[in-house]
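Re: How this chain folds, sequence and tokenised backbone to follow
How to read it: Take the token row as a discrete description of the fold.
Start of record: The labelled sequence and token lines come straight after this line.
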Amino acid sequence: MADLDLSRLNGEEADERREALADVYEEAYAEKLDGAFRSRPAFLDRLAAYVQRPGFELVTAREGNELVGYVFGFGIAPSGTWWGGFRGEVPSHVSVLTGQGKVFAISELMVRPPWRRRGIARRLHDELLTGRSEDLGTILVDPKNTPARSAYYAWGWEKLGDIQPFGNSPVFESLVRQL
């Protein structure tokens, strides 16, 4: 892993690489692709919207010429629409921080299977969060994804509640962490 190269991309740069990002998405989620929420076209649609959001940033990991994984996120709009589909009431301190533009959402974190279990996901995660101006981070995790869920809890994330952000998406655990 000594040859691992991390690079930051803004929304425009990420959009220019959307097909390569979608290739990694398909490989990382190969066993979970459902033709609806978890599909290449749905991912590309979400990515096209996400790269337009304020504060969008993507960090890639490369080993030589191979794109082995990436993570991206963006600032949540003060309107609070991010919390649509939240089960129950969003805690007031989270609503206040959202309204102040102080919440950063990690939307995707993935590593291609041959490079997993080498600490790459943690390095991507930490690099993306380094230097953020927001006070609170949020990330969604499928409760059935035990490796990811365990990693996030080990990295200091805590469960806020459950959320179904899209009608065709699974119900995720919504996790938060002070930044």
